[in-house]
Specification:
Structural class of chain A: mainly alpha
Helix content of chain A: 55-70%
Number of strands of chain B: 4
Strand content of chain A: under 5%
Order of helices and strands of chain A: HHHEHHHEHHHHHHHH
Distance between the termini of chain A: 37 Å
Strand content of chain B: 35-45%
Radius of gyration of chain A: 18 Å
Number of domains of chain B: 1
Number of helices of chain B: 2
Largest sheet of chain A: 2 strands, antiparallel
Oligomer: heterodimer
Structural class of chain B: alpha+beta
Strand order of the largest sheet of chain B: 1-2-4-3
Distance between the termini of chain B: 12 Å
Helix content of chain B: 25-40%
CATH architecture of chain B: 2-Layer Sandwich
Shape of chain A: globular
Largest sheet of chain B: 4 strands, mixed
Chain lengths: 352, 68
């Protein structure tokens, strides 16, 4: 799987499933979106009360459990943590806010483009610039420090939470909220969603696919391995969308999107910058959390809280654009991440 | 032999540290990494740069010896 063919195959399957999940009932151009789906989960457990985006998405549980099972099987399940958890938590909050201002994680950004949503182009430009800025910080010596081997229980907590959420999805206790209209009410049958999530979780764990990593490696070490997966997702999702008549090119009226290019760009700049600082995009962090990385599990919880804040404070974008609050939050996020990076580089200079 | 300890570092720091060491030093290099992914990434990078790399398992990860 760690070959060119492996990464193209993984990207292809993610692209195809991304296209097919829309056919099976997921929201348009949102077959898979790590940010949106974590946001829906935050809503379903009542962390935010935005009525149209509340649902326990089995895809996310599938990512975590697929990665967990395959890592167990291959002996790659290693429990470690202790690399600046609180800083990771804050960075993850801002990655999520940036993604929700744009309305999608890096993966959905590519799926949106494959569905003909040209607003995604501004997002891609911002994401690439954010990743480049993050890469530059890495070159300057930015690091969140090393992790250590820690007690095994730390690696099981997020997979257990995933199983619990899955049970809640099936049992639907009264404290779990599901949208009655809007994107949250559009979903594929739970078993299909879960199966797709598990397949992607397994393949993503084996191939190490990462949306931020693709651009980062191309710049830092002139390595095109991971970007191949990124391109493969686009090509296969595009073909599936063409086949099912889900390719609708244009700027206006795109599903769960807006046309404020500057905020699409800056939102994804924030998401890209933060992703490099965390060591991977939201999909990759979710996979790592499944294979025992407690720091990535903290990132996951940061995404969850970030999503809740994004809706409670009115920061997330909508079809009509980005609110003043959302714009301020993006600026605060970018400034905060640079301050964190600066302090890390200074600290490591002294330590060296 | 110059040593690089990249155990426990987030992706892609092991590769960045290797790159810096390859640029700053001449001769062979010993690189410690914590996990499979870092081993693969560093090995791929070293081979691309034209050097040879040999990996062996250690207690908490892998030891990579770079020959050039």
């Amino acid at each position: 799987m760690n070959s060119k063919k492996g990464i193209i195959f993984t990207g292809g399957i993610i692209g195809i499933l991304g296209g097919l999940l829309v056919v099976f009932g997921n929201p348009a151009n949102m077959g898979i979106c790590v940010a949106c789906f974590i946001r829906d989960i935050a809503g379903a457990v009542g962390l935010h009360r935005a009525g149209v985006v509340q649902y326990l998405r089995p895809e996310i549980m599938g990512f975590i459990l697929g990665a967990f099972l395959i890592a167990k099987g291959t002996g790659e399940f290693k429990v470690k943590g202790g690399s600046s958890p609180i800083t990771r938590f804050v960075i993850a909050i801002f990655v999520m806010i940036g993604a929700l201002v744009f309305l999608g994680c890096p993966l959905r950004m590519v799926l949106r483009l494959a569905g003909g949503d040209w607003n995604a182009i501004a997002g891609i430009i911002g994401f690439v610039l954010g990743v480049l800025a993050g890469s530059l910080l890495l070159k300057k010596g930015f690091t969140l420090g090393r992790s250590y081997k820690i007690n095994q229980i730390n690696g099981y907590i997020l997979p257990i939470i995933a199983v619990t959420l899955l049970i809640f999805r099936l049992v639907r206790p009264s404290f779990i909220i599901f949208s009655e209209s809007g994107p949250g009410a559009s979903y594929a049958f739970w078993a299909i969603a879960l199966a797709a999530g598990i397949i992607i979780g397994i393949l993503a764990q084996r191939s190490r696919i990462c949306m931020a990593g693709g651009i980062r490696d191309l710049y830092l070490i002139k390595d095109s391995h991971l970007i191949t997966g990124f391109i493969s997702i686009f090509v296969f999702a595009f073909v599936v969308n063409l086949i099912f008549g889900n390719f609708n090119p244009g700027f206006a009226g795109q599903p769960a999107a807006h046309s404020q290019w500057l905020w699409n760009l800056l939102g994804m700049f924030l998401a890209g910058l933060g992703s490099v600082m965390l060591g991977g995009c939201p999909l990759r962090q979710t996979i790592l959390a499944g294979e025992g990385n407690a720091d990535s599990a903290v990132s996951f919880l940061g995404y969850l809280v970030g999503a809740a804040l994004a809706h409670n404070f009115g920061l997330a974008g909508s079809g009509s654009g980005v609110s003043t609050n959302g714009r301020i939050a993006v600026i605060i996020g970018i400034v905060t991440l640079f301050i964190i990076a600066y302090s890390s580089i200074q600290f490591n200079k002294k330590a060296a | 032999m110059k040593k690089v300890d990249a155990r426990g570092r987030s992706c892609p720091e092991p590769v960045v540290m290797t790159k810096k060491a390859l640029e700053a030093e001449t001769g062979d290099l010993e690189i410690l990494v914590g996990e499979e992914v870092a081993k693969e990434n560093v090995s791929r990078f070293v081979r691309k740069s034209g050097a040879k790399v040999k990996a062996s398992q250690i207690e908490d990860g892998y030891k990579l010896i770079v020959n050039r």
